[in-house]
Amino acid sequence: MPREIITLQVGQCGNQLGCRFWDMALREHASCNPNALFDHALSSFFHNVDRRYTPPQELSVGAGNTPIRFLKARAVLIDMEEGVVNQLLKGSLAELFDSKQYITGASGSGNNWAQAHEVHGPQFSDAILEKVRGEAELCDSLQTFVMMHSIGGGTGSGVGSYILETLHDAYPEVYRFTQSIFPSADDDVITSPYNSLLSTMALTEHADCVLPLENQALLDIISPKVTKPFDEMNSIASNLLLHLTSSMRFEGPLNVDLNEITMNLVPYPRLHYLTSSMSPHLAVSSWLLQLFTDVFAREAQLMKVNPNDSTYLACALLMRGNSCTISDLQENVARMKSRLTMAHWNVEGFKVGLCNQAAVHSPCSLLCLANNTCIRSRFIGMKESFKQLYRRKVYVHHYTEYMDVSVFDTASNMMDDLIEEYETLETARTPEHLVRLQPIMYQ
């Protein structure tokens, strides 16, 4: 049975990212579905509608041989301004969405987490839940919500936080993944340190898995000759989601479902931040070796962190393409494992996946998801940026119009605890009395 995913695009960044994601998702499925049939792979992100009826009739996936009539995205679009959503609804992807799937305001959130969370969140709460419920009712087996947003602005951070809290209460059994764009050190939103800290509190408490990305890291990966860098950055982020979900959409000898990501990569509930890297390019020779080497390189990370200087709590390696075998995966995992520092209680903490369906852009590609203590450095930087503003109470009055000042202190203490938890695992040493069991080989 297919498992469905509902995406929630929140704020300007989330909707721009979502626009690119749906374009790439359509291209990917078109490349491997020449007969235009509504199959199980398509049903994860789309539902099939026959508009010859009034009201339009939903067509089930059945045996996977139903012709495609009109595809609708399993998505809810939310923004407190109209510009980006209206642009999407007037573009080439307009037929993927209808009026039941989007909510827009007119005033914006003013780059203020408190205004978005305390005013716009409650104001649109019933409407958001109703639209989410409408999408959920069209699913046979809803597995995951995926929220796309940034944490440095207003709507993506504040309304995004409110939505996570609401989903936690309304759908406690459905996984909540987020693709969260973290602000860079030179972010042009002056209040982003406040928004980021407050949003991280919600991500820590209410998300099951967070995939953090950073604009500067994405910029460093793309070629300086690219004329539209933000399109390329959104393509990288979208490809991450397509790669992550490929095993649940397409066949392969080692399929990995999203629930297996949380099961294998999140050893502690609050420590669910997974750094990511991809290696989509082929080398001239020994290309498979190069793919595995590249994804662990600092330059390939989608955050400005260096995992090789820190401890891996767990790691997933997800391969796409039919030119790699299970033995190839095992051989390369063994090769790389000797170079990495794994937590002493999880030295075998690798989850591997192999999907036969290649990505559109490459015949063979590799995604690495790592629960690594290196994310601590990013949280330390976030806390320092917050302190630089907060010690002078700069712009605090804009926030205390909508919330009590103690919320800042709560979020700050939460961040300290989060940093300490990662630091404790980073500095942990293998107990001297630990004796590992060795297999007994019988002749």
Automatic annotation (TrEMBL):
Name listed for the protein in its UniProt record: Tubulin epsilon chain
Domain of life, source organism: Eukaryota
Domain Tubulin/FtsZ GTPase residue range list: 57-252
One Gene Ontology molecular-function label: structural constituent of cytoskeleton
InterPro entries reported for this sequence: Epsilon_tubulin, Tub_FtsZ_C, Tubulin, Tubulin/FtsZ_2-layer-sand-dom, Tubulin/FtsZ_GTPase_sf, Tubulin_C, Tubulin_CS, Tubulin_FtsZ_GTPase
One Pfam family cited in the UniProt record for this chain: Tubulin_C
Keywords recorded for this protein, A-Z: Cytoplasm, GTP-binding, Microtubule, Nucleotide-binding
Key word Protein transport present: no
Tubulin/FtsZ 2-layer sandwich domain boundaries: 254-384
Cited CDD domains: epsilon_tubulin
Gene Ontology BP term (one): mitotic cell cycle
Family membership noted in the UniProt record: Belongs to the tubulin family.
GO terms for cellular component: cytoplasm; microtubule
Leader sequence segment: none
